[in-house]
Write a structure and sequence with these properties.
Layout: H1 3-10, H2 33-45, E1 50-53, E2 71-76, H3 79-89, E3 94-98, E4 111-114, H4 123-136, E5 140-146, E6 177-180, H5 189-192, H6 195-199, E7 201-207, H7 208-223
Parallel strand pairs: 1-2, 1-4, 2-3, 4-5
Antiparallel strand pairs: 5-7, 6-7
Helix pairs in contact: 4-7
Length: 225
C-alpha cells in the first residue's frame, strides 16, 4: 500500500450540503440510476459469480443494487470509511477489504468495477492500476470514462480532470460495451469540444486481453528511441 496515497484519500470527504454521500455527487441515487439499473443484467450476461468493486466508497448507492447470489467484495484505501461500511453491510456473500488498487494484490473475481477513481490519480498511478489489474487475471474491467477527446494531467492525486481511457496517452481500444451515465451520449466533435460534451460519461467495459494489449503497446513506446 502506498502510504502517501492512503493519507491523501483518507482525508477526502466529497459530501456537502446537498450531497449525503461522503463519496460525492457521483454517488447519489440520481447519478447512479442508469448504472444501478444495468449492473445486474451486465453481471448475468458475463456469468459473474465474484464481483470486485474498488474503490467501494461509503456504499451509499451500491446497497440499492440487487446482486442476487453474486459474491461481492468491496475494497477501499480509506480505512475509516471501510471500517464503517464493513460494520454496517458485511455479510455471508459480501465482504470488504482494505485495498490500494495501484499496489496491493487484487481479490480474485470474474469482473472488477473501478468507478470514479482513476480521474483522481496521476497518470503514472493509472498505469500502475492497469498493470495491477492485468496481473490479477480478472477477465473484465468496468471503469469510468468521460467522452472527452483530451486527457489533462493532474497537479496532485485527489484532484479531478475528466478521463477517457481511449484518448492519448492511454489509447485503449473501444470498450466492448458501455453504460451511459449522463443520458444519451453525443459524440459529435463539435459537442465534445464543449464543457457539456466533456462532462458526458459512461461506464466502459474492457476485457483483460484489451488491457494487456494496451500495456504491451505502452511498454514498447516507452522503450522506443
Amino acid at each position: 500500500m502506498r502510504d502517501a496515497l492512503r493519507s491523501e484519500f483518507e482525508a477526502k470527504d466529497w459530501s456537502g450540503r446537498k450531497v449525503r454521500s461522503r463519496s460525492g455527487a457521483g454517488s447519489t441515487l440520481e447519478a447512479t440510476a442508469a448504472l444501478r439499473a444495468a449492473l445486474p443484467g451486465l453481471l448475468a450476461r458475463h456469468n459473474v459469480r465474484r464481483f470486485l468493486d474498488a474503490p467501494c466508497g461509503d456504499w451509499f448507492w451500491m446497497q440499492h443494487v440487487d446482486l442476487g447470489d453474486v459474491h461481492y467484495t468491496g475494497g477501499d484505501i480509506a480505512r475509516d470509511v471501510l471500517d464503517t461500511v464493513r460494520a454496517e453491510h458485511a455479510g455471508p456473500s459480501r465482504d470488504f477489504v482494505h485495498l490500494d488498487i495501484t499496489a496491493d494484490p487484487l481479490t480474485q473475481a470474474d469482473m472488477m468495477m473501478c468507478r470514479d477513481c482513476l480521474f483522481h490519480l496521476k497518470w503514472w498511478l493509472r498505469w500502475k492500476f492497469f498493470e495491477n489489474f492485468a496481473a490479477s487475471g480478472i477477465p473484465w474491467l468496468l471503469t469510468s470514462m468521460h467522452h472527452t477527446p483530451v486527457n489533462r494531467r493532474l497537479g496532485k492525486n485527489g484532484d479531478f480532470a475528466p478521463f477517457n481511457p481511449c484518448a492519448a496517452p492511454f489509447n485503449f481500444p473501444e470498450p466492448v460495451g458501455t453504460i451511459p451515465e449522463t443520458g444519451e451520449i453525443d459524440l459529435d466533435p463539435a459537442v465534445l469540444a464543449t464543457a457539456r460534451g466533456r462532462r458526458q460519461r459512461s461506464m466502459g467495459l474492457w476485457s483483460r486481453a484489451q488491457v494487456v494489449e494496451t500495456l504491451e503497446r505502452h511498454a514498447a513506446e516507452e522503450k522506443a528511441p
